[in-house]
Amino acid sequence: MTSLSTSREAAGDALVLKAGTAWTDAWQRCLTTAPEAFRDDRVLNLWNGTWQADGRPLPATNPVDGTPIAGPPRLDAGTARQAVRAALDQHRAWRHLALPERRARVAATLDSLTQHRELLALLLVWEIGKTWRLAQADVDRAIDGVRWYVDGIDAMVEGRAPLEGPVSNIASWNYPMSVLVHTMLVQALAGNAVIAKTPTDGGVACLTLACALAAREGVPLTLVSGSGGELSEALVRAPEIGCVSFVGGRDTGAAVATAVADLGKRHILEQEGLNTWGIWNYSDWDALGAVVPKLFDYGKQRCTAYPRFVVQRALFDEFLGAYLPAVRTVRVGHPLAVAQPDDTFPELDFGPLINAAKAKELTDQVTQAVDRGAVPLHRGETAKGRFLPGQDTGAYVHPVTLLNPPPSSPLHHAEPFGPVDTIVLVDTEAELLAAMNASNGALVATLSTDDPATYERLAPQIRAFKTGRGKPRSRGDRDELFGGFGASWRGAFVGGELLVRAVTQGSAGERAPGNFPSYHLMA
Known about the structure:
Elements: H1 7-10, E1 16-17, H2 23-33, E2 45-47, E3 50-52, E4 56-57, E5 60-61, E6 68-69, E7 73-74, H3 77-94, H4 99-115, H5 117-128, H6 132-157, E8 161-162, E9 167-170, H7 176-189, E10 194-197, H8 204-216, E11 221-224, H9 228-237, E12 243-248, H10 250-263, E13 266-271, E14 276-279, H11 285-291, E15 308-312, H12 316-327, E16 337-338, H13 356-371, E17 375-379, E18 400-403, H14 410-413, E19 420-426, H15 429-436, E20 442-448, H16 452-458, E21 464-469, E22 489-492, H17 497-502, E23 504-505, E24 514-515, E25 520-521
Parallel strand pairs: 9-10, 9-12, 10-11, 12-13, 14-15, 14-20, 15-19, 18-19, 20-21
Antiparallel strand pairs: 1-16, 2-3, 4-7, 5-6, 8-23, 13-22, 17-18, 22-24, 24-25
Helix pairs in contact: 2-5, 3-9, 4-6, 4-8, 5-6, 5-8, 6-7, 11-12
């Protein structure tokens, strides 16, 4: 995809980078803030309580404008094994530390994260393409969420003990703070040493800074980089590991699930599912139109995004009357491009996808789907994007909406993880339910219907962990539980008290709420 000009540039009013937000600015601030974790041109790995200049740094580019940034320093399998053994030693000391001391160290970490909130957010903008609004929200949700656990941890661990070994975390790149760092700090608060692998596709500097701030407070974290295939023996199969926590796609998740099942190891595996929004006997089109732009937050690169609408055929014309004007208002562009250097950050719905390769893959899928019979209903206008003059826009994809993607297309049955909506038309309630359950389990779903009785009758038949009536559902914060049905989740459920229960030991014979091969137990 080539660079393009914006309508502002055409008018002679070119956008510029907001003052103080360049990658070089952010990197220099990292060097100043945490010199122990950052070198001139690379980040370090954290293991055995020390920042180590090991691993082979990979070249990397940012998704915002395609220019170079620091890549992950990939360890080999042998070094990763040493890191896991060292984490076990940390775990054996930390699990016996008094709860008030653990609470104090995690609370101090939260104070430090709060102090460096803007730098953490800026790193998220550059490394994974979040808008400023969403980057700040990611940091804030991590801090606020862990504070809730700090305040209530006494009751959550009463009668429980830490695991026998550290918790190993392998997570996707899209929520480094509000999912990964949040989970790591709660796991540590509950009495466990914690290991995390940096996502290959982005977020290494943000995670490095966050872990540096925690390590200064004496929280036993290990942060390593490397390929999943090379490090899985250490991070998943090693006997020292007490629990494996995974967030990612079904293919990788299936391999992890097989490993933990063979070993009888405790696990939390959050996997993708095709989240759907059903429309049946519905008339509040203003409400639907108002929510459509919000569903494109972060380019739908979220585990709780809604990429599929299942629409009653008789209502299709009214649905389009609400949907199309709304999707045309979605704002895309460079997250740091402003008219004047001192202007506030731009208000955008999303910026780039995670990288140019993903953008090309998604664009190719759309082209193939149309070639095989899908009907394009909307394609975003690239000329309306907000970009800097001459910048690389290879990672940007504007909203696309397709009617009836063919069964041969990945867009028919899988989550696109990008700003592509697909619509399927149905004529009966049975067809509605079959289309909403196309992926054998999802994390969230929504059903819009005017009749409360219809919702109460159909909602239990939708295979999603959370189902909303006319409103989107989210992962949730604090005491809201989270999990999945079918192939979208394996192992213990999390959220609220369950996150602590998943990484602690209770009474003999305790059955954790979750989705396991031998049982499915709700909280």
